[in-house]
Amino acid sequence: MTAHDPEAMRRPNAPMTTYRYDEYDAAFVSERVAEFREQVRRRLSGALTEEEFRPFRLMNGLYLQLHAYMLRVAIPYGTLTARQMRRLADIADKWDKGYGHFTTRQNLQYNWPKLVDTPDILESLAEVEMHAIQTSGNCIRNVTADHFAGVAPDEIEDPRPTAEFLRQWSSLHSEFSFLPRKFKIAVTGAAHDRAAILVHDIGLRIVKNDTGEIGYQVVVGGGLGRSPFIGKVVGDFVPREDLLAFLEAILRVYNRFGRRDNKYKARVKILVHEKGIDEIRAAVEAEFAAMDRSAFAHDSVEFERIAAFFAPPPYDSLPATSASLRAAKLESPAFANFADVNVGAHKIPGYAIVTVSLKPIGGVPGDATSDQMRVLADASERFGFGELRVSHEQNIILPHVKQDDLFALWRMLDAAGLATANAGLVSDIISCPGLDYCSLATARSIPIAQAISKRFSDMSRQRRIGKLGVKISGCINACGHHHVGAIGILGLEKKGQESYQITLGGDPTFSASIGEILGPGVTAEQVPDVVEHLVDYYLAEREEGEAFIDTWRRIGHARFKDVLRREGEDGADI
Amino acid sequence: MPVFKHPQILIASNLTDGEVLFLGASGWERDHRRARVARSADEAAALEASGKRDISANRVVDVYLADVEIGGDGAPTPMHYRERMRVKGPSVRLDLGKQATGGAL
Amino acid sequence: MALISEGRFIEDAWRRLADEEALPKTGKFIVSLPRLEHAVEVLGPTATFGVIVPNTTEPSALIAALPRLDLISIAFPAFADGRGFSLARLLRRAEFKGELRASGRLVADQYPHAIGCGFDTIEIPDDLADRQDEEQWRGALNAYSMSYQRGYAGRGSILEARRKAVRS
Predict the structure, then answer these.
(1) DSSP per-residue codes, A422-451
(2) CATH number (domain holding residue C54)
(3) Of A367, B40, C22, C116, which sits with the fewest C-beta atoms within 10 Å of its C-beta?
(4) Which whole number is the average pLDDT over A223-230?
């Protein structure tokens, strides 16, 4: 059988806009399912102890959590077809409890699968070209990318072909499947970083050199968790044909020299911090020079094969602005609000990028019911070539919506409870599952998000506040990315009670920064008050056009600390 | 041996479906109210040994003792908020977990 | 200890030499790393010997001895410690042509990783061999028809297969 011809796969109403498996990809996931089925059998028989089974269970995305197992399904570079979204809904209904949770790494989590059902779930996923491969374990994880890939006006190159290229390269890697710790890679290809590459183990920034050649700025050693670090440049310009070899060099240095004596010191960020970036860069360059790179000689051809799948869909030729959109906004203030907040500019005239918020006021951030998933799938087919994205902010993106269609889309979403107009606003909170689900958690995070969301439920107030990233983690592992929240909240335990530490000034973009601690921990009840005081202070002090993070940077952390201290002195409940 | 301060129950996760289990008088229970309560260090050690045998039998994983308070009705309530969560289910979805199926407080 | 080769348990033709034991005149024996330099010095060209090394060994420590060695055994202190896989790769890169052996509590599911990185054989403790029979080791070896990586041993390369398909 010959390799697929991308052109042959195009259909007018459901064109191919993302990677499709060929026979080798299909065989691979199929074999993976069979392997896991056998591993489960050997676990149940005792041929494998739990300690032996655990890494292989994790490399198929299956965790043991507080109440049940949890299965983390990979959504490579956050891109899904309508068919795949429908399958996720069906799996939720058949083997789980009718819902799923979209994560900060663009994946989907099911909270109630059974071990014995998981091979069947993986088989169902494989039927639609999906899997849960390496979404956990001490291996290379899901390669994430800009959720506006392919459609953002500020894009230099779509990062997803690179992400797919890396996904294949990293799958079941003979050498790098038993690393000191997990390894996360993110790719961005735009002027603004929406993939948080500077807080990943490896961050790739697609750049063009003076001659217009595409290459990668490679950053290493970023990460959140117990010891947050911003990544450092290890390769200024790595040409495309050298990318995999260069990454192999980095992984080999990490595999050999990353610490294995202490689980909390085992990430590559610690290696970079302890040895210094200069020594790491030298080691990587030496390894790169010593490698036999002839094995990579034909990478460009394979890259082009992959890139062809991501060709733009057949957009219509439209005027830059839509008269019907303007009219609809005048007629419906609620729709106007949505159009202003959740709709972003598209690089193709007449089109728009829509953010579907999974943060309804008072809801569980990032959760979607199976019915909502089906509505999203339908919406993507009616209004966007059948393609969806999952952002690391736990929202769904419809990347190819005509401006003319925005009103009809909004009505469809509104009917399904998916039209909350809060993208990027204070109630668009990123929150990990926390102690409500996660066995690693030290405190609950979701109820905190819900309380803050309800405190700021007034939409006009939210709009007045503007862009504000609130991020909540239920433990020091920082899956809620609290370190890079403009307002970050970390749930800990203090004297047998849940206690919340607040940080300010975090930023996940190219101007990355780690948040600074505000003061001693506060109780769950106090958190919405504290956030409100901080926001009110910002509103009082901000200058024209300043978002919360900008004002904080300008006037300094100490002034915000003073706010809370003064509140405390006045006897307020801080 | 650590000082025995509070009555204890034994908690584990069911291998096949991940559900939280409690060692009862004659086997594992899904309802914590049917958990056997250890009231001395010796009883706790025996409880733990008994439970750990089921790890080798590939029945359960993650076996551990948890401190409890005994309520007026005799039911053991875990003292730490994490184990109280495990006994009930997610606090943000009261329709899910043991709290929904009557296996909780 | 049990020895896996090509998906089967085989008799081990090699003997691990205790440090106090004198270097034998005949037979295939494995010395510990601290004895290697001396062994290379005193043993004749017909001697068949190998060395067992920690997984943190720098390849440069073995380069001089490589042409004389018939076997290198890399210790895996824990199966989840993957440093031995990189060390094996580097030794193959340095043109070591003898038997590469992984020694430790590896599980059958790691067989493809070991082969991919250039190992020939795997040595495991008996209690592990009792639980993980030949069928599991063979099963693991055959679980995947092809591999996505380039330049690794074992399974065929998916990339190569794609290239051939395009050319044909």
Answers:
(1) -TTSTT--EE--GGGT-TT-SS--HHHHHH
(2) 3.40.50
(3) C22
(4) 94
Provide the domain limits for residue C62: 2-167
Neighbours, chain A (3 or more CB pairs < 8 A): B, C
pLDDT tens readout for residues B4-47: 899 999 999 999 999 999 999 999 999 999 999 999 999 999 99
Please name the helix (run of DSSP H) or strand (run of DSSP E) that holds residue C128, with its range, or none. Answer: helix C126-131
CA A258 to chain centre: 25
Per domain, the residue ranges of chain A are 17-127, 151-310, 323-415, 438-569
Q: A152: pLDDT confidence band, cut at 50, 70 and 90?
A: very high
What CATH fold (topology level) applies to the domain A151-310? Sulfite Reductase Hemoprotein; domain 1 (3.30.413)
In Å, how far is B68's CA from the nearest CA of chain A? 14
Q: Residue A388's pLDDT is what?
A: 97
Contact A201, A228 (CB under 8 A): no
Partner-chain contact B81 A436, CB within 8 Å: no
- Per the CB < 8 A criterion, the answer to whether A358 and A365 are in contact is yes
**Interface residues of chain A, partner chain B, Cβ below 8 Å:** 43-46, 50, 64-69, 97, 111-116, 364, 435-437, 441, 444, 446-447, 450, 496-498
Q: Report H helices in A346-470.
A: 370-383, 406-415, 446-455, 459-465
Contact A138, A179 (CB under 8 A): yes
Q: Where are the beta strands (DSSP E) in A200-253?
A: 202-208, 214-220, 232-239
ipTM above 0.90, yes or no: yes
CA B36 to CA B99: how far, in whole Å?
A: 20
Contacts of B5 (CB under 8 A, 6+ apart): B67
Looking at chain C, which residue has its C-alpha nearest residue A258? C83
pLDDT at A568 over 60: no
Residue A51's identity, in one-letter code, is E
CB nearest to B16's CB, from A112, A114, A498: A114
> What's the length of chain B?
105
